[in-house]
Amino acid sequence: MSESNDLIYIKRCFELALKGNAGVAPNPMVGCVIVHNHQIIGEGYHKAYGDHHAEVMAINSVTEDALLPESTVYVNLEPCAHYGKTPPCADLIISRKIKKVVISNTDPHEKVAGKGIEKMVASGIEVVSGVLEKEGHELNKQFFTFHQKKRPYIVLKWAETSDGFMGRFPDDASSKQISNALSNRFVHELRAQSGAILIGTNTAVQDNPSLTTRLVDGKNPLRVVLDSKARIPESHTVFTDGNETIIIGPSRPNSRVEYIDIPNDAQYWPSVMRTLYQRNILQVLVEGGRRIHEQLIDQGLWDEAIVITSDAKWENGVRSPILNNTKLRSFTLDNDTITHYLNR
User: At what angle do helices 3-18 and 54-61 cross, to 10 degrees?
Assistant: First the structure.
């Protein structure tokens, strides 16, 4: 199999893997292609957490098992070598006597981390790794960050006017709406791709948001609300609608949410992120106000920022944070411009 063909089939793995977006966390997105004599004879992807892995789906899709020993398996992430929700995929590949496996990335999970490759090589399987490695890392950047940095992938998100305001002053009764309907739907898609969404006290008190994915299909994220002085009224939505919520702050009696009191010291933000890591949250979407965003920016504790800029002008209000980082890409949704920044 030529190197150019390897690229083609690994790219197909990426396409398949993306079909599992928003459904597989805290597992990675994985696609698998099986090729015999330059023909694809099987495909599969990881559909949902706890469900079959991509390699299992692809092997099960092959109609002629006799072809497997002369086939090449392409997969964007190293086959697992341990028992989790499912048996090890490396063992399955070995049992089917497949002759070659081509991989994009080594799995950073401490229970895998090269062990799947070692198992297959020890069984006589030819293994090629590192094909489109950079692209594979980008595909599963949340998964890699989670296992390598022991924290979630942190995405900052805010909307701002064309003259740089993200909010009204508390005594200003003017409309707070900045972004348009398409941008709002885009934000709900971001929520569906995130394991948790984080806001602060002022946002909860002033906006009383629900922080759900009601505009799209997808699971509601865990709501993480900072409330160190117990200021949020218990009549507000985060307490009353039954969706899963953690309040970072002192507990209250008879409440229907979970409380975690974290000391407000120099380790406050690392402690918050460690709490989310311990709950297997791969990505947290930060939708708080200026203060929260500035604290995370100042500490360098973020990975990506998404800024929605409308054509509205307010002339006064709460100023948006300033980012002096690499602009990744931008696109428009009607009269809004969506800009992605990377923290390098």
Answer: 110
Are the C-beta atoms of 155 and 283 separated by less than 8 Å? yes
Question: Are the C-beta atoms of 104 and 142 separated by less than 8 Å?
Answer: no
Q: How many helices (H) and strands (E) does the chain have?
A: 11, 16
Q: Residue 233: what residue type? A: P
157: tokens are 């998100």
Structure token digits, residue 265 = 């010291």
Q: What angle do CA 267, 109, 89 make, to 5 degrees?
A: 160
Let me know: does 43 contact 16? Beta carbons within 8 Å.
Answer: yes
Question: Which residues does the annotation mark as catalytic?
Answer: 55
- pTM assigned to the model: 0.90
CB atoms within 10 A of CB 308: 21
The tokens for 101 are 């496996």
What dihedral angle (degrees, nearest 10) is formed by the CA atoms of 270, 272, 275, 276?
-100
N-term to C-term CA, the chain: 36
Contact 308, 162 (CB under 8 A): no
- Stretch (H or E) spanning 269: helix 268-278
Backbone angles phi, psi at 295, to 5 degrees: -65, -45
Question: With contact defined as beta carbons under 8 Å apart, do 102 and 9 qualify?
Answer: yes
* 8 Å CB contact between 123 and 90: no
**DSSP label at residue 68:** G
Per-10-residue mean pLDDT of the chain, 344 residues long, equals 81 95 86 95 90 91 92 95 76 93 92 88 94 96 95 97 93 88 96 95 93 92 95 94 94 88 93 96 96 95 97 93 86 96 90
Q: How far is CA 44 from CA 25, 74, 97, 178, 187, in A?
A: 17, 11, 19, 41, 29
